[in-house]
Amino acid sequence: MSDNETVLSNEHTPLFANESGPIKEVHAFWLAGMSCDGCSIAAVGAKNPSVEQLIHQQIPGLPKIILHHPVLAVEAGHRFMEPYYKAVKGELGATYVVLYEGSVADEQIAKDTGGYFSAMGMDDLGDGKWRPYPTADMLDDLAPGAAAVIAVGTCASWGGVPAAVGNVTGSMGVMDFLGEDYRSALGLPVVNIPGCSPIGDNITETITAVLMFLAGVGPLPEFDELGRPAWMFNETVHRGCPRAGFYEEGVFAEEYGKPECLVELGCWGPVVQCNIARRGALGHNGGCMNVGGICIGCTMPGFPDAFAPFYKAPPGKFISGTASRMVGSFIRPLRKISQRKGNMTNRWLKTEHIPSGWGHVEAPGVVMKTIHYFYKKIQSSGTPYHPSGSNQQRKLQAKSRSAMSDAIQRSGKRAIEAEPVSSTAKELG
Ligand code: SF4
């Protein structure tokens, strides 16, 4: 087996997957533009599914993925770059997708001064001349033949930090670079997985969903009008935030380290589309608000400028925060009353004594008991259920006892009626 075959075939990986579908094997070419490599770190931390599961074909129906990643590859130099060159020349002889991390710089700006911004490998200029191969040019060369182009992270999706105000490199997202008419060889526009960095599971899950579709074993995943996986990005952070209950009750943290809602410290969660609070950062752990941080809108196309300066309350907070405070000032005391009731056993209510060795708990007084009585009345109105009404309980129990004895009698009767039939059957037998 030649060196190249070792790189391209990956024959030693175990086969657990169902091999149905037209595409059996997909090369995944990772390219890095104006990037900090954070998206690579996020991807290798993914757990559901993990990169290992993808490359070892442990997901039924998923084609075998041969990953070419400059940081993860065992090969180096020309041996590592060769599959890229083959794909550029149309000589790979296999399906491939492009995964682009970081924003795409305007390499013409760099070329004008004789340099480059982001490059990988060498571009053969003929006559024995070579130059560093800008990843922007490589993206341009690989995109038309790719089954899919996936922008990994906010920089690749929208431009991100390198494209912020003062953008001297002319950085932009993959979508801007390839244009709105771009379609992959299999007809897909650019898929965007934003986040700075994205949740690792968002990266691997989207790649899996797209490849399942391309392999003909899954439906086309739903994307929104900006090419984001809709099932991950159609809800705001706020809707899945563990602190949303505090927001609803108008209780806001005044400093970090407190458990309440962080909107007054500059959280943009109510408007930002992201699933970090629900999914966590890594293996369902961590993730911005879950660990005490605010949302600074890193998944959004306007990031970072639209959300800067960070750590300053959004202007809309004045209206929504005041409304929450007003509603919360009514809701909180009412909830306290119901909570108090939920914290009592029937026995404690009867004995008016809570025998806790952990501290003194006041038994409900006359006023509280009266409130609870009417509360319970409203709660059980329109139903026969009334747990604290013993007469009602007795009636319900009597009713259920009579229903049971009726059922027993009916089944006894059926058994007697069935007897002659079975005796006849025995005789015939
Ligand atoms: Fe919403 Fe942010 Fe408050 Fe969470 S911390 S409830 S996302 S405003």
Automatic annotation (TrEMBL):
Residue ranges with Polar residues bias: 382-403
Record-listed E.C. numbers: 1.12.99.6
InterPro entries named among the record's database cross-references: Cytochrome-c3_hydrogenase_C (IPR027394), NADH_UbQ_OxRdtase-like_20kDa (IPR006137), NiFe-Hase_small_C_sf (IPR037148), NiFe_Hase_small_N_sf (IPR037024), NiFe_hydrogenase_ssu (IPR001821)
Keyword Chloroplast: no
Record SUPFAM superfamilies: HydA/Nqo6-like (SSF56770)
Gene3D superfamilies per UniProt: Cytochrome-c3 hydrogenase, C-terminal domain, NADH:ubiquinone oxidoreductase-like, 20kDa subunit
NADH:ubiquinone oxidoreductase-like 20kDa subunit domain boundaries: 36-209
Cellular component annotations (GO), alphabetically ordered: [Ni-Fe] hydrogenase complex; cell envelope; ferredoxin hydrogenase complex; membrane
Subcellular location: Cell envelope
Keyword set includes 4Fe-4S: yes
Class in the EC hierarchy, top level: oxidoreductase
Record-level GO BP terms: anaerobic respiration
Segments traversing the membrane: none
Keywords: 4Fe-4S, Iron, Iron-sulfur, Metal-binding, Oxidoreductase, Signal
Residue ranges of every copy of the Cytochrome-c3 hydrogenase C-terminal domain listed in the record: 233-311
Cofactor(s) listed: [4Fe-4S] cluster
Region (Disordered): 382-429
Broad class of where this protein is predominantly found: other
A molecular function GO annotation: metal ion binding
Family named by the database record: Belongs to the [NiFe]/[NiFeSe] hydrogenase small subunit family.
Protein name (database record): Uptake hydrogenase small subunit
